[in-house]
Amino acid sequence: MKTIKDLDIKNKTVIIRCDFNVPIKNGKILDDTRIKESLKTIEYALAQDSKIILLSHLGRIKTEQDLALNDLAIVAPVLEKMLHTKVHFLNATRGPIVENFVHNMKVKDIVLLQNTRYEDLKGNKESSNDQELGKYWASLGDVFINDAFGTIHRSHASNVGIETNLESAAGFLVEKEINALSSLDKPQHPYLVILGGAKVSDKIGVINNLITKADYILIGGGMAFTFLKAKSYEVGNSLVDESHLEYCKDILNQYSDKIILPVDFICAPTISNDNSVTIKGLGEIASDEMGLDIGPQTINLFSQYLASAKTVVWNGPMGAYEYKPFQEGTNCLLSFLAEHNIKTIIGGGDTVAAVKNKPSLAQNIYHISTGGGATLEYLEGKDLEALKLLN
Questions:
Q1: CATH topology of domain 4-175
Q2: 310 noted as active-site residue
Q3: Three-state secondary-structure class, residue 93
Q4: How far apart are CA 132 and CA 388, in angstroms?
Q5: Same fold for the domain at 4-175 and the one at 183-379?
Q6: Alpha-carbon dihedral of residues 186, 188, 189, 194, nearest 10 degrees?
Q7: Most exposed: 4, 270, 309, 342, by fewest CB within 10 Å?
Q8: Is 349 labeled as catalytic in the residue annotation?
Q9: Is it the case that residue 248 has pLDDT exceeding 70?
Q10: Per-domain boundaries in the chain
């Protein structure tokens, strides 16, 4: 894979596709991790006396109301503070205001354009990889650096569209992500996969791709109850993906020795921070209760399997992690992996949020991915659209 170091960007106008798709609430950025992860590539371009044009999407744009909610202007002052240099922001994705600014840029100037998905409001031009839009953005620079791993699996105008029209390479974040994930192509064994989250349907591709490669797949979260119901266990009012019961039966029949399911659960009648909880074993969940986390026996069981692991990949929490009473299972397994220095790749999404809540543990995790969907698709064995052109 060609990287930014393979290109001559000295005194060039460099377009960098970043991933500034950060969570925002009440006008404040809740987690600036993705902004921090972009710094290394931007700083390298600054050191090469480049003129830098930054592109990113933020949220989804379907209505006029979405424009104000996903205004990328909020990122510019945060990025400026981190880089200790001026970051100009243009409230435009194209047109004379953009062209005039780019024409007059000096070395080390940085400009962030408005949310690329503003172009989705009329015709989904960004998300459908409109050829004219991709060609236009490519015309603004001399080289293109794709450093947005979170969209590396998508064919958008701001990645594939530009790559098609301009000399391109990966940034340091994309390089780091791909190097970490490619280590799973030939993992050290025992190789274990931990899968959580709500629906079986979200993880079918991962299960199908990894079931023959991994030694064991440990399943928790809401998706565990579809497997348990497929085995005829009573699961009460727990989340069940009814449309995939047959899939679970078939995969369990083929690989019953590889799929490890929970044996006890933290239960409550509703999902809340205030409910009293009970611990129930297999088949003991009442009709008015939901299983909302793995229980202590399951934590011990999963830990026994993980104790001998050399490689672990994890996607999805073990319970309804956004509620405090149902965080124990995820936190205990994270602590176990970190304390035993087991090579662990955390594959995006809510599991990353769980690690971020435990900074002391995060430093002992081999890799924490910034891309939820992109990581899942890699684990499914799919081609990542914007990566193919970089190769």
A1: Rossmann fold (3.40.50)
A2: no
A3: coil
A4: 21
A5: yes
A6: -80
A7: 270
A8: yes
A9: yes
A10: 4-175, 183-379
